[in-house]
């Protein structure tokens, strides 16, 4: 046998060398390595005792095995397996079998028989468990063959009665991963006497083990059931009662899995009716589950509590009655009903009394309670969140807050109720929890209006020393509705205090006030005289225009005035002047106002709100107009493009909603324009030496088009594959142009050959990528090229260049269709501002940390793509990758980068400026990320066209923020 | 039946001087040994004469367990161990062991030095007493002797407070001491596993109260302090030195840190500094937040809180001062109060309950003019606030603990009788378990049903396994044959052969024989055959053999036919079976007594 095997191994050894690689070019050399199986065999034969063998196996496991030799290796392992007496070695071999069968390109169905065979002869429980695990791996490698599955499942059923828990675990896991819904199975462990009961389906077999004596097996059974559910098999409702019983299990992992199980059932059968034990009533299953899981929120194990709290959040079908119970907590003191602080605060507010000093016994208990009605054990959902939010572990609290958020978003009345509790969480001892609850409150803030006392609590957090908390709170205030003018005043007051205490919050506070003003114009109106400190008789001194606090007040007032036309009448003269100034300097914060007698009137009225549609129409019309370009002669066409680009750019400035789309179109048209100019140069037909100059401009144009196409592709989000195809098309044209230009410079045939080759590859990859889009590209450049493809690939470079040249000149403009939403990624560096005249001084050779604070909009996956570039005056540059933790996400499509970059340089004689800007990195890998839909559709896993980066920028990056200059001064070291 | 007896010497339907005697499985244990704050006479300490009239307690008690360092739980300890006399082990957790002597010493000083009492324990006695202490770790099982083992669980309440699980054989009792089911700023919540004790002895201070969320109270407190500070006022917080004071300190400290406040916070010195030191050491006993962050910074190393000096009280500007004692009846807190009372910008916050007659009680009730000693009156202009920070479990918390531990019986101590009554009713109703609430000196007796462990021989087990299904099914009890041998305090279940061998006995077979008269006209052999076919048709699934020697065997039961000489029609069936087959044998005999059916051939 051994000899035979050895022979096989050597056969295989030679096979490795001989297999002709179909795709590889013929000339490629392939180095052959001696097969691993041979080496292993030798090793294993050498092994004198089990420890040695184990060592060899361990070493072997560290190295990868080629797909071709896997089978041989498996044979050798199996042979050794049969001979081996030591359990641990057999165990290792079994695990190796599993590992090997995962090797890519190896189909494990050939070893399945052997594996099953070994299984039936194995005595050791541990090895048995490992073998089953191996079978599981094999089984999941072969999802397509029901016969093998059936066999494996039968094996699993057979071993389910093993006495070792590990074997039962693995069997259940196997059933969970491979079990099918419809196949009845014979459970043959029961002996011949009971075989009448016989055929059972997978689910009932698994659910039999819900009552196993070993908690680990119970857990495994639940997990297997969940696995079945994940694989899309509908779980029967019958197991509900069993699962509920497991909620009371002694072991936490069982309870945790049971929570999941019960939850799954509640999602599958929300409306079915279950009886309440010890009463005749019946309730919906989802309500019952909700009650039970709520109960688990006060479980003894915090893991279960986290699980339960999380799960609650996703049970949106629960009846409102049950939902509101979760916040219910009846207080009593000495058997008298007591009101919660929340209720008291509400009453206080309702009675119109303003913040009373605390009276002794103000919380004195009121009416006497009937002892029978007091329910101490929270039945069902009672007070689940009250418990969850007060939990010892912050993980539970966070989970509870998140669950509250999810539930509140779907139920406004619940949102109203949970408000008090969320506001309370602002005072948690752990910052994460505070932050999370602020975020949550923001998310549900559309449903709620804050009362004054609540607002008071919320605003108290503004003094928090953590910047994240403050910013989150500002964000919250932006979205908050308040009810009275006192609230506005309070908010303003606190914000100004905040501004005073933390001047760095300036921008954030202003923005906050902008929203506060525009949300509550009528509430601001009565406050205006006080805010602007105007007086009916006396002139008041003109406030200092540079005072951030005064600007803050103005921002509030002006934004309120936008929808309150009577307000400007209350302004004093200097207010108007300040308005003009602020409108200019802080235009993003100060809205255009219709002011009586100001010249601004005209401009502003022209672009009131509601013109988005008309702008959209205009955009569409411009694009359509461009379409007619084919019919125009060259200069006319260029003019048209020029004008359209200008129009679009202006449109983008005016209509922020359409900025992305307009910009995108403009850039695209600019590419076309450049292309057109380059092609329509009259000197094209001229002899080469004469047109060197034109060559230079055309080369530059081609280069520029390439750059622009990368920008088009990676800077804008919301592109569909149609647009991506269009962009690639332009890029292809630019490349063709480059090729033609290279040919004309005659730098040598080799270069031309290789670039021709490359171009052909580009065309191929284009065809592969955009197969689905090709029908839309009729009559285009590519379309024509593809027609000529057979000729192109066979002809000589010179001929090819000629073809290209004519095709290029003949091909027209590809019509650009706009996607629904298109946004341009933007970045604004807030800090450093670049205004400081004081240089940052540091000793040369050491580093100085520069704080960077920037907002990013519409950037996908900023953790990987956004870099900071620092350019020193000597032309040196650095690209710094910020840590993933430096990115925060304050809102949808928005990110905030707060990081530090380290600067260093040799000594300078005088301070000078370094430039800091943000770059958006792109690469073929990130391209496949951003267009995952594409990748999945086209099977585009290894894109061959790694885009050659434009040389001007740093490799594969697009600068997308304005650069900021920072004054630095590295001092020479003192000795 | 074995019994567990619980007798409170203190804290039975009462708060104060906790001292509970438990006898379990022949062991006597004293749980806590506290003093009563309300008395200054003999009633101050538990009545140890209940245990023995004269002589030392050592021989009557197996161990003493102290749950935490509050004086109503450990105040009588030196008295008991040194003056009454006890030399056995005293168990308490490490923090309790560290802090307890400080408090005892303080208590001694006040009683002896200030009040001038004699016949009180001395400093040396406290030291001697502490030498008898064996420290406990959380979740560590300590063997007191061969049978008695105790295990401590976390109880919240104060630093080092523990619940104890006492176990003798399979009987067990859990004593909670004081505990808190909601976490606070420095301690976590009590936790116990599903240990299913026979009795759970729980405190019930807040038996009739369900409390509001802690957060509201904290927020209120912080807001009050913050507002007052911003106004430029001074805030006085009278506290007891240990426990709540640390919680409030952490609360203020973190708030100061969060809000970037600069006003100074002072802590009047005394025993607090020492205690704070221990708080720093026993980080593992604190809550999640402090445990997680102590590597960066120990929360008890206060940045903003400094030691107070008498002269600081006159400093201008806002400040917060923690001062002892908590009820404003004497000492530093009263001095500061007098200084600050006149200014309405100032504030005093009472964080706990005040006994009647103290100044704290008066001002809480709104009195604005106080008469001081020396006929002077004091105008109280400053604001008076009340905040309740108490660390006992409320009714819900008690119920939660019961749910966690799943006891078979419940016993309430450390609470007022009327309130206990309510909770007792609730417990009995919700959990349907018995609940006791003995008064001091009254004994509650609980009979237990302990399981008796029996060793089973592997052979027997394997044999039984081979007969039935492979896995034991807890739901289906199975009968098995074996011999129970009781020998030298141990029980063994062995196969009968082995038992015989061990005991040196011969095996005797016990056989039942039975004669069944039968009227049958056939010959003997035919009758036998008819019996055979009859049985064959009735007993399916049994092996029935017709042996050539004229017998029928059903399993091991032998059936023979004999006919009397005079009347060949009346025959007698002889049945014989061993006692193992008693079931089948008696079945057969009744079956055959009915006669053979006529239809048989």
Automatic annotation (TrEMBL), chain A:
One Gene Ontology CC term in the entry: integrator complex
The organism's place on the tree of life at top rank: Eukaryota
Keyword S-adenosyl-L-methionine appears in the UniProt entry: no
Localization in the cell: Cytoplasm; Nucleus
Keywords associated with the record: Cytoplasm, Nucleus, Repeat
One Pfam entry name: INTS4_8HBD
Residue ranges constituting the INTS4 8 helical bundle domain according to the UniProt record: 617-819
GO BP field: snRNA processing
Domain Integrator complex subunit 4/Protein SIEL C-terminal Ig-like: 828-972
Signal peptide as annotated in the record: none
Family indicated by similarity: Belongs to the Integrator subunit 4 family.
Protein name stated in the entry: Integrator complex subunit 4
Originating species: Xyrichtys novacula (Pearly razorfish)
TrEMBL record, chain B:
Signal peptide interval: none
Segments forming domain Metallo-beta-lactamase: 16-229
Keywords, comma-separated and alphabetical: Cytoplasm, Hydrolase, Metal-binding, Nucleus, Zinc
Gene3D superfamilies, alphabetized: 3.40.50.10890, Ribonuclease Z/Hydroxyacylglutathione hydrolase-like
Domain Beta-Casp: 245-363
SMART domains the record matches: Beta-Casp (SM01027), Lactamase_B (SM00849)
One GO cellular component term: cytoplasm
GO molecular function: hydrolase activity; metal ion binding; RNA endonuclease activity
Similarity section: Belongs to the metallo-beta-lactamase superfamily. RNA-metabolizing metallo-beta-lactamase-like family. INTS11 subfamily.
Record protein name field: Integrator complex subunit 11
UniProt organism field: Xyrichtys novacula
